[in-house]
Amino acid sequence: MEAIISANRPRIAILGRFADSTSVTRYAGLVNARRLVEGIWAAGGEPLTLLPVSGSDWASRLEGIDAIVMPGGSDVNPERYGQKPQSDELYGIDDLQDEVDLSLVKYALETGIPLLSICRGFQITNVALGGTLVQDMEVHHRHHVAPVTIEKYLTELGLSSPTVEASCYHHQVIDQVAPGVEVIARSAEGHIEAVRYPSKGWAFGVQWHPEDNFDTNPQQLELFQALVREAQKN
């Protein structure tokens, strides 16, 4: 970890999330989780928040950016994966957020820029590639912590152990896996918890929130460090 921190920090873009209100702005805000940006910083990266803008020229906007994190957030509009809303538990749907998320992950995977997707980011990347979601789980995984075993790519993920203590906060999961997406971990109930994406670059996704316990659980910080190492290659 010391070697990563002492090097020049690669620039890690995190797509911002719209919030109806925040205490410090008094009005609607653009946010990222403090724990997430602190986790990327602790791993040696320079976290930067991007404004979601329709029709973005990503080649231009991402100039000087070394990797992308697609963070957690609210629900994806079910119409994005060919369904009508079927649950009263759906919340925070924002068509602009969906549009920009979809275009950014497609660009990242097509160009090979390193990509880590988390929770909502994990879900919408599956949607971007042609998969679907369970709109509302029978048993929600909110404030849910449980071990998850990674079956493959431990070296690529920089993990010292295949078992990670996954801290989750979600009520949706992947249903149909998108073509080309490789499942590499499941929960005890069988839910998909981690995947590798089809890309010429480093591209992985996790359903849990590694930022929740990166400072107390080494495997979570190792995941961010793996992203930073890949970013340093750009």
UniProtKB/TrEMBL annotation:
Q: Which PROSITE patterns match?
A: GATASE_TYPE_1
Q: What organism is listed for this UniProt entry?
A: Candidatus Rhodoluna planktonica
Q: List the Pfam families hit by this protein, alphabetically.
A: Peptidase_C26
Spell out the InterPro entries in the cross-references: Class_I_gatase-like, Peptidase_C26, PuuD-like
Q: Which domain of life is it from?
A: Bacteria
Which GO terms of the cellular component aspect does the record hold?
Answer: cytosol
Which PANTHER family does the entry link to? GLUTAMINE AMIDOTRANSFERASE PB2B2.05-RELATED
Q: What is this protein called?
A: Uncharacterized protein
Q: Which GO terms describe its molecular function?
A: gamma-glutamyl-gamma-aminobutyrate hydrolase activity
Query: Which terms under GO biological process does the entry name?
Result: polyamine catabolic process
